[in-house]
From TrEMBL, chain A:
<feature type="transmembrane region" description="Helical">
    <location>
        <begin position="212"/>
        <end position="230"/>
    </location>
</feature>
<feature type="transmembrane region" description="Helical">
    <location>
        <begin position="141"/>
        <end position="160"/>
    </location>
</feature>
<feature type="transmembrane region" description="Helical">
    <location>
        <begin position="172"/>
        <end position="192"/>
    </location>
</feature>
<feature type="transmembrane region" description="Helical">
    <location>
        <begin position="9"/>
        <end position="31"/>
    </location>
</feature>
<feature type="transmembrane region" description="Helical">
    <location>
        <begin position="67"/>
        <end position="90"/>
    </location>
</feature>
<keyword id="KW-0472">Membrane</keyword>
<keyword id="KW-1133">Transmembrane helix</keyword>
<keyword id="KW-0812">Transmembrane</keyword>
<dbReference type="Pfam" id="PF09490">
    <property type="entry name" value="CbtA"/>
</dbReference>
UniProtKB/TrEMBL annotation, chain B:
<keyword id="KW-0472">Membrane</keyword>
<keyword id="KW-1133">Transmembrane helix</keyword>
<protein>
    <recommendedName>
        <fullName>Cobalt transporter</fullName>
    </recommendedName>
</protein>
<dbReference type="InterPro" id="IPR012667">
    <property type="entry name" value="CbtB_put"/>
</dbReference>
<dbReference type="Pfam" id="PF09489">
    <property type="entry name" value="CbtB"/>
</dbReference>
<keyword id="KW-0812">Transmembrane</keyword>
<feature type="transmembrane region" description="Helical">
    <location>
        <begin position="24"/>
        <end position="42"/>
    </location>
</feature>
Amino acid sequence: MNSATVRNLLVRGMLAGLAAGVLALLVAYFLGEPDVDKAIAFEHVPAHTHAHEHDTEVFSRSLQSTAGLATGVLVYGVAFGGIAALAYCYALGRVGRLTPRATALLLSGCALLAVYVVPFLKYPANPPSVGEADTIGRRTGLYFLMMLLSVLLAIGATLLGKRLAPRLGTWWATVTAVTAFAAVIGMAYAFLPAVNEVPSHFPATLLWRFRLSALAIQSTLWAGFGLLFGELAERLLDPRPAAARARAVPAAR
Amino acid sequence: MGQTVAQPTATTPAVPATLPLRAIAPWAVFFGILMLVLLYFVGAEQGATSVFNGTDVHEWVHDARHLLGFPCH
């Protein structure tokens, strides 16, 4: 019975992740792709001699910016949808007096912060032509380390808050947990090595716009996921007959 | 918004029952790893490390990798 609930939530999480991925894909295509193209154009300015694998053209730009982009964003959506659904199974009923729908949106907001925003503030997204080919191993390692650290610390802060709640009350327990999270993340920011490989003449406005687009994509993905998955989870978990909430959700199941 | 809580017919509390960890664990182990493998192929394959030779995977998801914030070449 419980196992079936987990399975049902997992399936819904992956579907909601796919749908949120479609929304994020629209943002990525219309907001992000123009910046990617401009950055690639900068890369091919003759003065900028940077031997690069793009010159070999395995796939055309029009394929990369449509089918390739879609593959990446949708797989990302499904994968994080599944992981978030599993985390949701654990969070459900354990994070406070919240409905299934509110729990989903809270989890989604925390995931946006822990999985993306916190690592992004230290190692922000970079457009093509920013970043040296020979440091890819180090940069990838640092990025995934920051992501892992942020997620583990967010889980730790949540458990700490739960622990403190009976003594300090929900408000101050939450404030303490968030402060502890910020303090440790701040130390990680301070001690982990910086990465700055922006070419000297790369347009600052383009870099700024690209990074804003990257943030917009993630915000769309996680907001969409939180709302869609929350609705699906609410319908699945609310045991009351459909008539009791007919006004809110007609023909639930 | 909120009608489900505000309905006068609501006799049960709004807080849902918890799912025991042992019901979640098998799904979390199997699907968690599967999802992480998917993320690896979108985010890092043929960049820092390679399971397959060549650059096809990297080039195919190239734009997504940049726009999703992963380090890419």
